[in-house]
Amino acid sequence: MIKKLLTVSTIAALALGLAGCSGTSEEDAVTQTAETFMNAMIAGDGETVCGLSLREGEVVTSSDPDWAGCVESIAILSEALAPQLEAEGITEVTIDKATVTGDTATIKLEDINGDIFHGQTSVFALRKIDGKWYMDSPS
User: What are all long-range contacts of 126-129, with beta carbons under 8 Å and residues at least 24 apart?
Assistant: First the structure.
């Protein structure tokens, strides 16, 4: 169980390092970004994960020298996690709510359906840049 917790947290942290039901339109945009990011991580879609990530506060783009490494890392991490997710029947996640304050937002892990984080209490940060939400470093 601890290994599962660490594995999923590691995937989320590495993905970010490498690179809603109701609410306001900003809350909906935040939950959509986070769901897209996490479901792409589950699917091994590194281009989507890396494209929705900030690295040191900057948007990661396909012209970034580390882009290929980011994409490849997501594929490897997703493949490693796949048997655990399949065993638990988790194919996607949804997020119940987000907290938005200006151009920053947070998603609490306990608000994620499809408990890929197994009850961990942690927070994902998002930041809005040029009108688009991106996953920032987890706290």
Answer: 126/30, 126/33, 126/34, 126/98, 127/54, 127/57, 127/103, 128/102, 128/103, 128/104, 129/54, 129/59, 129/103
53 close to 137: Cβ distance less than 8 angstroms: no
pLDDT tens for 4-34 read 444 454 455 545 544 433 456 999 999 999 9
Instruction: Please state, in angstroms and rounded to a whole number, the distance separating the CA atoms of residues 12 and 3.
Output: 14
Helix (H) or strand (E) holding 124: strand 123-129
In the three-class reduction of DSSP (H, G, I as helix; E, B as strand; rest coil), residue 65 is classed as coil
Domain ranges of the chain: 2-135
The pLDDT > 90 percentage for the chain reads: 46
Which CATH number fits the domain 2-135, given the four candidates 3.10.450.50, 3.30.460.80, 3.30.499.10, 2.40.110.10? Answer: 3.10.450.50
The amino acid that residue 137 corresponds to is: S
